[in-house]
Design goal:
Elements lengths: L5 E7 L12 E6 L5 H8 L18 E6 L3 E5 L10 H17 L3 E9 L6 H12 L4 E6 L9 H12 L7 E3 L8 H11 L4 H19 L1
Parallel strand pairs: 2-4, 2-5, 5-6, 6-7
Antiparallel strand pairs: 1-3, 3-4
């Protein structure tokens, strides 16, 4: 997908604020500081549209980013922040859960994992929850540039084994710094949202009969 336009739309705190565009949505879930904002910025070739922060737990809403007129990236609040009260964490948990269970336009969840470390208990819990509810997901391992290339596959293996990942789950090795994994991730997203399918379907009835007559 060629990104011609990307814009921040809203920080939503409930369903009443979700966009009404009826576009497919790709959600990003992961621990605080795992690199979700940097991933979004790399995917859309922008340096700072998605706001990064060194303070864990800063994102407390669903941040919507509209890409062309094709889809939304939805950045979910990061989990694993120790400085936030248990009551607040529980509130955010219900908020995220309701979105993931009931948002009809949600097509795929990117479970973002820091490649440098084995998945945390929170990562494992999120993966298990998504699988239990049959939510389509893609595991994205970020910060590959922070470890030697020769150890990439070893770390990917640890991520898969710790999560207990199904072989059917796509896993993308990603680096926001290097651009590694960007094209592969776009391909997965395009398949999930049927990108280009409508155009192909519209063109076929007009072009096929004509070409068939020419060939025979």
């Amino acid at each position: 997908m060629k990104v011609n336009q990307a814009e921040f739309i809203i920080s939503a705190v409930g369903p009443s604020q979700y966009p009404m565009d009826a576009l497919p949505e790709i959600a990003l879930a992961g621990r605080s500081n795992v690199g979700k904002s940097s991933l979004i910025n790399r995917m859309i070739n922008r340096k700072n549209l998605a706001r990064t922060s060194s303070k864990p737990g800063k994102t407390q809403q669903l941040n919507y980013y509209k890409i062309n007129s094709d889809l939304f990236f939805v950045d979910l609040p990061g989990y694993g922040y120790a400085q936030v009260s248990k009551t607040e964490r529980e509130k955010w948990g219900k908020f995220i859960e309701n979105y993931l269970l009931h948002r009809e336009f949600l097509k795929l969840v990117l479970l973002v994992i820091d490649l440098r470390h084995p998945p945390s208990k929170d990562d494992q819990a999120m993966y298990s929850w998504l699988k239990h509810h049959g939510t389509p997901l893609c595991i994205v391992t970020t910060k590959a540039d922070k470890i030697p290339r020769s150890k990439w596959q070893q770390h990917v293996k640890i991520v898969k084994e710790t999560l207990g990942a199904d072989k059917s789950d796509p896993v993308v090795l990603f680096s926001s710094e290097l651009g590694l994994g960007k094209d592969e991730l776009w391909q997965i997203i395009e398949q999930k949202i049927d990108y280009g399918a409508d155009t192909t379907a519209e063109e076929q009835p007009e072009t096929q009969p004509e070409s068939a007559e020419q060939e025979h």
